[in-house]
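task queued by scheduler; priority normal; single chain, no ligands, no partner chains; default sampling; output format set to C-alpha cells
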Amino acid sequence: MGKNRLFTILAGTFLISMFVPLVQALPATENPELPTKHIIENVPFMPQITAECTISALRMQLAYYGAVYSQTFLLNLSGWDYAFSYYYPYVWISLEPVYTVLHVGEILGCKIEHYSNQTYEDAWRTLREFIAQDKTVFIQWRTHSVLAVGYDDEDNLVYLNDPAAGAYLERENFGAYVAMSLETFKDFDYWGTSPMGNHYEMLVVVPPKVKPTVSWSDVLTVNAGYLTSGTLQMKGFADDLETGFDLTGEYLRERLGGIASVTFATGWIFREDAAAFIEGLAQMTGSKNLDDASIYLRSTAECFAEGKALLENKLRVGEIPDLPRVAEALRRAADYQEKAGESLMKGAKDLGIETQRNYALIGYVVIATLTVVLVLLVFLRKRLRFLF
C-alpha cells in the first residue's frame, strides 16, 4: 500500500508539473472581456519643444511610473541630439523613433513590450488590453509619436497625450487626453505605417523602481559615431540644396520653407542643447576633449542658425534665397560637426579612464579599511590575552 501511495503522489506531481506550464502559456485572448471604456488617470503631460515628439512621449510614459527625467537628459542619452540622416526627399535630424525608445529603455533598465505588424483588429485589441491594465502605450505614427492613455468603444474614440500641444492651444488640458476618432487614428497617415515601414507599432515601457547608473563613456562613444556619420549626410544634403532639388517656383519655396522651419531650426536647437550638456560634463570631469566637443557643436549650431536666417529672410518677401550661400553654411556646419565627433570620441575615453580611476580609488579605500580593521583585531586580541 505504501509503494502504491508513493507512486500515486509522484505521478500526480508529474502531471501537475506538465499541466501548469500549459495553463501559463494560454494567450491573453482567452480572456475576451474588456471594458467598453477605460481612461488611465493622472498621466502627466509634457509638450515637445521642437521635433522631439518621440522623447516627449517616452518622457510622459516614464513619468507616469514616477521615473521623471529631463528632456535634455533623455535627448543626450538617446543620441537624438547627434544624429542627422538624409534620405531623399526627407531629412531626419534624429534616430528612427522606435529604435530610439528601445535604445533608451535598454540603457535605463526598463521592461519593454514591443508590438508591430499585427492586423488592425489584433493591434487595437492589444492596445486596449494594455490600457485596461492602466499601462500607457507609446504609439508611432508615420511622422509623429504620441502616448495612448484611453479608449472608448461606444463612441469609437482613442485618447492620446499628444506632445504637439500647439495644435490644442484652445483646449483646457492643452495636449493632454485628446480624443481622436478611430477612423482618423487608423488612417495611413496616423497609426498605419511607421517611418521604418512597420504597421500599427506600439511599445509599453515600464522603468525599474530604482534609477540605474548610466555609463556616459559608452553613451558618448555611440553619439560620437552619430556625429561622424551625420557629417557625410549633411554634405550630401548641402549638394542637393545648392541645386534647389531640381524644383522651381512655388514648389521650391514650399520645400525651402519646411527646411528652414524644421531641418535648420532643429539642427540649431539640438546642437546647442548637446553643446550645453557636454559642457557640463567637461566642467565636472575636467576633460579638455569634452570642452572642445562642446565648442565645435556650438559652432555647428551657429551655422544652422545662419542657414535658417538666410532662407527665411528671402522667403518672407517672396524671393528665392541664395542657395549656394545656404549650402556653404551647411558645409561649414558639417566640418565643425566632424571635429566635434572626433573630440567627443576622445572625451568618451577620458570618461572611461576617469571611471576606472574612481573604481581603483574605491578599491584602495576598501583594502586600506580592511587592513586597519585586521590590525585592530590583532591588537585587541593580544591586549585581551594580556589582561586575562
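post-processing summary
- The beta strands are 37-39, 85-87, 90-92, 111-115, 137-140, 145-152, 157-161, 178-181, 201-206.
- The first strand starts at residue 37 and ends at 39.
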